[in-house]
Design a protein that fits this description.
It contains three helices and 19 strands. It is mainly β and 372 residues long. It has two domains: 115 residues, Sandwich (Immunoglobulin-like), CATH 2.60.40; 217 residues, no CATH class. The longest helix has 19 residues. The N and C termini lie far apart (89 Å).
């Protein structure tokens, strides 16, 4: 009886597991490559796009497959404007040290560019990519109107840090007025050209500037703006408190707090460490004969698509394979494919602390820029 009972139990388990088996047919379309469109455009410029195929399986090493035989059509306000032309991209290998190993095929080989059509603020554009093997993908965006920078002003500040260090800082304050009754997205960047004298002590009565050489250094600041303005606050979750935050790396902000209002925001455009053993203090900061600092501030009005893409792609890069974080999906506005088609329009305003150029001053390019 015991043997028969055990046999019945075993037979029941076999029937149960046999009933649970189900053959699932693999759907190859789930990993079929999709068209990837990458196109950012600024007002008053030609349209450009690169086209690739997506990688089927994330994490699997596979070179990019760039597309050079697609038909790329541009539409303006619903009407066909032109077909973008394909151009071979030529790289200066001496100037491009980042891509030293071309075996990874990380660089696009072909760029599609408009010939006659330049982007205009206020117009809606659609890019359509047609490929004989991978179908049709498209994206659409409307370029916003630029927001004028009303004024710029600068102030020289001597910053004393708790740890004992000191910085001479040039703080720039920008005033602008947000466009009311609409959602607006912004990015703030600036370029800085600094001319410094290597003379730390000089006779203030000396007027012959030909005795001085000014060393010029230039830098574009597009990330990590040095500011404490609340408008640049970053959304963080509980994990960021323990494991760090991606921060507002690209200086993005919205008009959520300032809808339709005039607003002033300040940032450090230039700072120079004060050596306690030198006489380089606030009184002669940017005041030696010929010294100057020229700041070009750019306020970019982004499309919503551009804002979300920049923010999400940086978060994706930051969190990466962090075990304690949720994976981040980069924003895409491409239908039947992936990628981004977005743009921006900008206003630029400049200010100069000091006088530049001066005919009697010798200017030399400083190849070693130690200033921030």
């Amino acid at each position: 009886m015991r043997t028969i009972f055990h046999s019945l139990i075993l037979f029941s388990f076999v029937l149960i597991f046999a009933a649970c088996e189900k053959e699932i047919k693999f759907n190859s379309k789930l990993i079929a490559p999709k068209l990837v469109i990458n196109s950012f455009v600024s007002a008053d410029s030609l349209f450009e796009a690169t086209i690739a195929l997506s990688k089927a399986v994330p994490g699997v090493e596979k070179p990019f497959e760039w597309i050079d035989n697609a038909t790329v059509i541009l539409y303006t306000n619903g009407e066909k404007s032109e077909e973008l032309k394909a151009f071979e991209i030529k790289y200066d290998e001496n100037a491009d040290n980042y891509y030293t190993d071309d075996n990874s095929n990380t660089r696009p080989k072909t760029k599609y560019r408009s010939v006659n059509t330049k982007a205009e603020a206020g117009k809606t554009y659609k890019i359509e990519v047609v490929h004989p093997e991978h179908g049709t993908a498209y994206g659409e965006t409307t370029l916003p109107q630029p927001v004028e920078i009303i004024s710029l002003k600068s102030e020289k500040v001597l910053m004393n840090y708790e740890w004992g260090g000191k910085d001479n800082q040039l703080v720039v304050t920008m005033k602008f007025k947000d466009t009311p009754n609409e959602e607006n997205y912004y990015r703030l960047t600036f370029t800085r050209m600094y001319g410094s004298s290597q003379t730390y002590k000089y006779d203030e009565t000396e007027k012959d500037t030909s005795q001085f050489t000014i060393y010029i250094s230039a830098r574009k600041n597009g990330t990590n703006l040095n500011t404490s303005d609340p408008i640049f606050s970053n959304d963080e979750d509980a994990n960021d408190f323990l494991f760090g935050s991606p921060g507002n790396y690209y200086n993005l902000f919205t008009d959520e707090l300032i809808d339709g209002k005039e607003y002033e925001l300040s940032f450090v455009a230039f700072n120079k460490y004060v050596d306690e053993y030198s006489l380089d203090t606030l009184y002669n900061f940017l005041e030696a004969p010929g010294e100057f600092c020229k700041i070009d501030v750019k306020l970019s009005s982004l499309t919503r698509e551009a804002f979300l893409y920049i923010k999400s792609s940086h978060a994706q890069d930051w969190y990466g394979e962090d075990f304690f974080s949720e994976p981040v999906q980069a924003y895409s506005n491409i239908e039947n494919g992936i990628g981004i088609f977005a743009g921006y329009s900008s206003s630029v305003k400049s200010l100069t602390e000091g006088i530049y150029p001066i005919d009697t001053v010798r200017y030399e390019l400083n190849e070693y820029d130690y200033y921030y």
